Amino acid sequence: MVQYWPEFVSLAIIHFVAVILPGPDFVITVRQSLKYGRLHGAMTALGIGTGLSVHILYTLLGVGALMQASPWVLQVAKLIGAAYLIYIAIQLLKSAGAIQLDAENAQADVSSQSLKKAFSLGFLTNATNPKATLFFLAVVTNVVSQGTPLHIQLFYGAWMCSVNALWFICVSLLFSASSSRAWFLNKMNLVEKALAVLLMAFSLRLLIA
Question: Can you give the pTM of this predicted structure?
C-alpha cells in the first residue's frame, strides 16, 4: 500500500476539492437540513455518499475495459477528462457566491418526510448526476495508474464515498444551526474562488503530465 500513497494523496485532494464545490449535492443537503433538521440532513448526506458508489463501480469497470480495448481511446479520454475539470473550475469562478437559499420553511414538520425518503433523495441526487460520471472518468484515467490493483482502487472508492458522506454530514450540521448559516454564505464567494483556482491548477498539471 505504501507505494500507492502518492497516487492516493493526489486522488484524495482532487476529490475533496470537487466534493466541497457547491453543486446539486450541496444544495439538497442544505435544503434538507434547513427544512427538516440535522437528522434528515445527515441521512441525506449518507445517501449522497452511497450514491457515489454507483459512479465509482461502473467507472472502474468501464475504464478497465477501455484500457484493454485501445490505448488511443484512453488518451482521448484523458484529454476530455482534464478539459472537463478545467471547465468546472471556470464555471465555479463565474458563479462564485451565487448560491442563495431561502430559510423561510426551516420549521417544516419533520414527520412529513421519512428518514428513508431523506436517504433516497440523497442517493438519487448523486447517482443520477451525469457530471459525476465525467469527473470520475477524468480522475481515474489521469491519476490512477493502469497497474494499480483492483482492491486498491476499491479502497480509493470506499474512501471517496466516506469522505462524501462525512462532508455533507458536516454541511447538514452547519446549516441546521441558523446562527452559522449567514456566516457560511457570507464566506462562500472567497471559498469558491479559492477552490476553483486550486482545481484549475490540478487540471493544468494533469494536461501537462
Answer: 0.69
